[in-house]
Structure formats: C-alpha cells, structure tokens
C-alpha cells in the first residue's frame, strides 16, 4: 500500500451530500477482484452519457480537475453498500484524500485499508475548501497527515483529528497484510516452536 505523508494537489469540488458507493462505482463493475482499472468507471453515471461519451459538465471531465488528487465533497460520503471497490476506484483514478463533513463508517474504514485519507472537518471549513477547489489549479490544497492539518489556498489551516493507529498505518503504508508481515519474526518463532512441541499438528 502506498504511504501517505503530505500531499499538495488540485482538489475537485463535488458539492453533493449522500454520495453512495453505487454512485462512486456502479454495481456492474463489481465482478473484478483487481484493484486496478476501475478509475475509468469512477462516478460512471455522472461522468458519461448513455452512449459512453464524457459529460462535459462533470468536474472530473474538465481541466484542471482531471488531475485532481483531492476530493472535497458533502456529508455522508460513501454511504450505501460496503463495496471496497469504491476506494479502489478512487485510488485508481488518482484520488488520495477525500474531505467531507462526515463519512459512512464502512467506507471510512475501507479508505484506510487502501491508502486513502478521509478527512472530516466542520461544514463551514469544508465550504471554504470547496470554494478553493472551485478555483482550479491556481488554488491547490495541502494535506499534512503527520501534523494533521489541511491548508487552504490562502494559507488558512484546518486541523483534523485521526485515530493514531490508522494514522500510523497510512504513514507507513501498512494494510492488513503489511501489518501481519510486521510480525513475521514472531510468527516464524511460534511456528518453529509448535513444530517441535506438537509435530503432529
């Protein structure tokens, strides 16, 4: 999993509440178990018309937001079904951080397992960052995980809270497998001891 430390990037404004996981990645794309290749289908029903042509009004189809790595959006982002394909699609598109007033719990946890930082801020602060995002490439945001602060285009800082363990995992790039491998030495020692004490196992 990619490490997350400090990110300065273009932010895309998506001023919608209750964006569910089916909006993020529709059900027809859930057949794959690969984490790659889903970015093209991110927000499929908003990005494309019935013939598969890009909707020129959708923010991620417009410059400079095609290159956005931060998404600023509304409350209850990621609600709906628990599909992990949603953070997979965001990550594959290039979104490393989502800023919103609130998130659905399962989506929130899935983000951390896939190297995406979900930042929760009060509505008025999200509104200010949304205004920055609407300015495009001239108003980049900086997200500093180590110091737990988002800095707006005008230099205003917005501190955020994060669980220390989840912060550690993102800073070190540790998913569930990575966390297990951190204990590889202890696991090997245990297995060697068990092989001697209980060779029939």
Characteristics of this structure?
Aconitase, domain 4; four-stranded antiparallel beta sheet; four-stranded parallel beta sheet; 8 helices; 201 residues; alpha/beta
Characterization of this structure:
By secondary structure, this protein is an alpha/beta fold. It has one domain: Aconitase, domain 4, CATH 3.20.19.10. It has 8 helices and 8 strands, in the order E-E-H-H-E-H-E-H-E-H-E-E-E-H-H-H. The chain has helices at residues 21-24, 44-47, 85-93, 105-113, 123-134, 164-172, 176-181, 184-197, and strands at 6-9, 11-14, 70-73, 97-100, 117-120, 141-144, 149-151, 157-159. The strands form 2 sheets. It has a 4-stranded antiparallel β-sheet. The chain is globular. The two termini are 34 Å apart. The model has no long low-confidence stretch (mean pLDDT 91).
CATH superfamily: Aconitase, domain 4
What percentage of the residues does DSSP assign to strands (E)?
5-15%
Q: What share of residues is helical?
A: 25-40%
- Estimate nothing, just give the exact number of structural domains: 1
CATH architecture term: Alpha-Beta Barrel
Averaged pLDDT, please?
A: 91
In CATH's first tier, which class applies?
A: Alpha Beta
Largest beta-sheet details: 4 strands, antiparallel
- End-to-end gap: 34 Å
Major sheet: arrangement of strands: 1-6-7-8
Could you outline the blueprint of secondary structure elements for this entry?
Blueprint: E1 6-9, E2 11-14, H1 21-24, H2 44-47, E3 70-73, H3 85-93, E4 97-100, H4 105-113, E5 117-120, H5 123-134, E6 141-144, E7 149-151, E8 157-159, H6 164-172, H7 176-181, H8 184-197
